[in-house]
Amino acid sequence: MALKGDRHEFDTDISYFMNEAASRGYLVSVSTQGSGSAMDSASSLVTVAANGSGAAVLGVLLNDMVDIDQTRQHVNWHKDEVVKGGKVTILTKGFVVTDAISGTPTAGQTAYLANSGKFTATSATGYATVGRFLSTKDADGFAKISVNLP
């Protein structure tokens, strides 16, 4: 679990697809892009970037992306699962409580993209600023983060 229910979704984007399994609460970046509005273009893809340097961050993934055989089991709508290749919801403004954090941040520090789609308080050249930490990590590794992306 990488995302708790305590969150405020001020602004979301539903114009991208995702072709890989991933957990909610991680930062996603542009993989390929469509032209024009590209609302239902299969070329509008996001990914959890293994290397965050130079990645164009879009926001926080709000769905669990699963790779399941739908002839044997159903998508768990109660967990907000989406099958690989489906449309995803991406938080661009608001706050989340996640454990997808690298390092030990403190409240008030700027949040940056880290490798593997995680948040970090460590600034590095080529890594995008994504928001601000609103708390330190709790005993389970979760922290509250304000996300503010254009």
Task: Describe the overall structure.
The protein has about 150 residues and is mainly beta. The chain has a single domain, classed as Virus Head Decoration Protein, Chain: A (Beta Barrel). The chain is about 0% helix and about 40% strand. It has no helices and twelve strands. It has strands at about 10-20, 25-30, 45, 55-60, 65, 80-85, 85-100, 100, 110-115, 120, 130-135, 145-150. The strands form two sheets. A five-stranded mixed barrel has the order 1-3-2-4-7. Strand 9 and strand 10 (about 120) form a beta hairpin. The two termini are about 25 Å apart.
What topology does this entry show?
Blueprint: E1 8-18, E2 27-32, E3 45-47, E4 57-61, E5 64-66, E6 81-83, E7 87-98, E8 101-102, E9 110-113, E10 119-120, E11 129-133, E12 143-148
Parallel strand pairs: 1-3, 5-6, 8-10
Antiparallel strand pairs: 1-7, 2-3, 2-4, 4-7, 7-12, 9-10, 9-11, 11-12
Order of adjacent strands in the largest pleated sheet: 1-3-2-4-7
Indicate the radius of gyration in whole angstroms: 15 Å
Report the CATH C-level class. Mainly Beta
Strand content: 35-45%
CATH architecture label: Beta Barrel
H/E series:
EEEEEEEEEEEE
Task: Give a quick precis of the structure.
Helices cover 0% and strands 41% of the residues. The protein has 150 residues and is mostly beta strands.
Structure keywords:
single chain, 150 residues, mainly beta, Virus Head Decoration Protein, Chain: A, 5-stranded mixed beta barrel
